[in-house]
Write a structure and sequence with these properties.
Blueprint lengths: L1 H14 L3 H23 L2 H17 L10 H33 L3 H8 L4 H4 L5 H9 L4 H12 L4 H8 L3 H23 L10
Helix pairs in contact: 1-2, 2-3, 2-4, 3-4, 4-5, 4-8, 4-9, 7-10, 8-9, 8-10, 9-10
């Protein structure tokens, strides 16, 4: 594809120190990376920060880019790894905070902290879009990554597998499980039921 070929050419140029080429790639893909990060962490402001981090990492890793790999695959591999690390840090922080609150026997505070965005609140915004966003928070990190790349970025199973450093069959399983979870969550919303945090 022309765009992919052009992206690959630009990335090679970035690896040679061409800052103008990097600016073109940033302008071309920044919005998509912000969307990807947003669906990953469920927070628009944080997504913009993460996207900035992704492009910094992309720039630093440009010299390692091989033109044999699609640029978009390479980009989303960097984005996925960064978001996975972000979720791990968040989970560790949340677990530590939970332990501290438990030691203080502050159960009500623990409940609020563990659930900063309840299903009721997530469904009070943009209707179906909010339901899907809420459903995606039920997914595992790898399910979320595969589902987002497939359903929102239109990437092929082969490219998603490369981005996740996995196999196509594993990616298909991830997307299938994610799709089932999201469908159940949206159906519950359509029926006026409160979405469960254990849907899977």
């Amino acid at each position: 594809m022309l765009v992919e070929d052009d992206d690959a050419r630009l990335m090679v140029a970035v690896g040679r120190g061409d800052k103008a080429a990097f600016s073109v790639l940033f302008d071309r893909h920044q919005a998509g990376v912000v969307r990807f990060c947003g669906r990953f962490v469920g927070n628009t402001a944080r997504a913009e920060e993460l996207a900035q981090d992704v492009f910094v990492k992309l720039y630093k890793s440009a010299s390692r880019y091989s033109v044999d790999a699609k640029f978009k695959t390479f980009l989303y591999r960097v984005a996925t790894n960064h978001c996975l690390n972000e979720l791990r840090r968040f989970d560790e922080k949340r677990q530590q905070e939970a332990k501290e609150m438990t030691s203080e026997q502050n159960e009500s505070a623990l409940e609020v902290e563990a659930s900063p965005e309840s299903p009721e609140l997530s469904l009070a915004g943009k209707e179906l879009e909010a339901a899907v966003a809420s459903a995606m928070q039920q997914l595992s990190a790898r399910e979320r990554a595969a589902f987002t790349m497939c359903r929102f970025e239109g990437m092929a199973y082969r490219d998603i597998a490369q981005a996740l450093e996995s196999t196509e069959s594993a990616v298909k399983s991830l997307i299938h499980r994610a799709t089932v979870t999201v469908m159940k969550h949206v159906e519950a919303w359509q029926q006026g039921l409160l979405p469960s945090r254990s849907l899977a």
